[in-house]
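Z., the sequence and structure:
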Amino acid sequence: MTNLNESATIDIPCPKCQHKTTKSIGWLKANSQFTCECGVVVVLQHEELLEGLAEIDARIEALKQRFKWIQ
């Protein structure tokens, strides 16, 4: 994945308290769980997350190619 900014962030809600924890794309790629401030360990569906990020990356690349074609 090359198009996603590693420092871009995503808010992830806790399944118990709904508190949103902000994590960067780079952090999400490297980790599969975190502990919410309420104490719940939030386990990320890491494989699905990486697939979703790859899909976003591909769509960004396709959009870039369309803009090159228009110019």
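The mean pLDDT is 86. The two ends are 25 Å apart (CA to CA).

Let me know what you think.
H.
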